[in-house]
Automatic annotation (TrEMBL):
<keyword id="KW-0812">Transmembrane</keyword>
<protein>
    <submittedName>
        <fullName>ABC transporter permease</fullName>
    </submittedName>
</protein>
<dbReference type="InterPro" id="IPR035906">
    <property type="entry name" value="MetI-like_sf"/>
</dbReference>
<feature type="transmembrane region" description="Helical">
    <location>
        <begin position="12"/>
        <end position="31"/>
    </location>
</feature>
<feature type="transmembrane region" description="Helical">
    <location>
        <begin position="88"/>
        <end position="112"/>
    </location>
</feature>
<keyword id="KW-0813">Transport</keyword>
<dbReference type="InterPro" id="IPR000515">
    <property type="entry name" value="MetI-like"/>
</dbReference>
<dbReference type="InterPro" id="IPR051204">
    <property type="entry name" value="ABC_transp_perm/SBD"/>
</dbReference>
<dbReference type="Pfam" id="PF00528">
    <property type="entry name" value="BPD_transp_1"/>
</dbReference>
<keyword id="KW-0472">Membrane</keyword>
<feature type="transmembrane region" description="Helical">
    <location>
        <begin position="179"/>
        <end position="201"/>
    </location>
</feature>
<comment type="similarity">
    <text>Belongs to the binding-protein-dependent transport system permease family.</text>
</comment>
<feature type="domain" description="ABC transmembrane type-1">
    <location>
        <begin position="51"/>
        <end position="232"/>
    </location>
</feature>
<feature type="transmembrane region" description="Helical">
    <location>
        <begin position="213"/>
        <end position="232"/>
    </location>
</feature>
<feature type="transmembrane region" description="Helical">
    <location>
        <begin position="51"/>
        <end position="76"/>
    </location>
</feature>
<keyword id="KW-1133">Transmembrane helix</keyword>
<feature type="transmembrane region" description="Helical">
    <location>
        <begin position="118"/>
        <end position="139"/>
    </location>
</feature>
């Protein structure tokens, strides 16, 4: 509770934005006239399935990225692997440098359509922020702190787990938050390769010229991104060791 009282302004301000945007959308939705197609797409049964599919796609890609990027980032900060760091970072940067649509199309030619291809595309696209932040977070730990831990008998692994990683947590989690927000937005493109997501509302609204459906899809994606960003910020706040933040 003390941490919540001392929380930065953004931790309190972002939920207000989420509530205002959510209430505004609900009021607009209740007051507007929808076509049959819009009513079918925005009916709760269909909308719930679409939102769940979007979240599952995003979280699946996030878990895979975290499992790959954080251990790899840790490895690249060790003396024996530092020479490989520029190669690994530049390779991870390919996903950010390439247009998301082009990347997904290329992967579709190789892996076909569907959920698996969408996940692979999202992983490639979002790996850089977590990898880069893991490296930066561990590198910024004061070398004197590491030497002190080693001096009192900590092993290399124990120093990493009990000293380096806790001190690097804020930077690493910031990278995870960034990747999550990127993934929420980019996941909308999965609809082009047959994976269900909120992008279905956007593409259907564009194709059939149904602006209300298009607006609904865009607002729901924005709300989901804001909610996930806020939850990540709260986790970052509580996971940061006392005295580091």
């Amino acid at each position: 509770m003390n941490r919540l009282r001392r929380a930065p302004l953004d931790v309190w301000f972002e939920p207000i934005v989420i509530v205002v945007l959510g209430l505004g959308y609900i009021l607009w939705y209740r007051s507007t006239t929808l076509t049959t197609t819009e009513q079918a797409s925005l009916g709760w049964d269909n909308l719930k399935t679409t939102i769940v599919d979007h979240i599952v796609l995003t979280l699946t890609a996030t878990v895979i990225v975290v499992v790959i990027a954080i251990p790899l980032g840790i490895l690249l900060t060790r003396d024996r692997a530092r020479n490989f760091r520029p190669v690994a970072v530049n390779f991870a940067n390919i996903g950010q440098a390439a247009p998301a649509v082009g990347l997904i199309v290329l992967l579709t030619m190789w892996l076909g359509t569907g959920f698996r291809t969408a996940v692979v595309g999202l992983v490639v696209y979002a790996i850089l922020p977590i990898l880069q932040n893991t490296i930066v977070g561990i590198q910024q730990v004061d070398q004197r702190t590491i030497e002190a831990a080693r001096g009192i008998g900590f092993s290399v692994i124990r120093t990493l787990v009990q000293v380096e990683l806790p001190l690097a947590v804020p930077v690493i989690l910031n990278g995870v938050r960034t990747a999550l927000v990127i993934l929420v937005g980019t996941a909308t493109l999965s609809t082009f390769i047959g994976a269900s997501s909120l992008g279905t509302l956007i593409t259907t609204g564009t194709t059939l010229f149904l602006p209300k459906l298009l607006i609904s899809g865009a607002v729901l994606v924005a709300l989901l991104a804001l909610i996930i960003d806020w939850l990540g910020r709260v986790v970052e706040l509580f996971a940061t060791p006392r005295g580091v933040a």
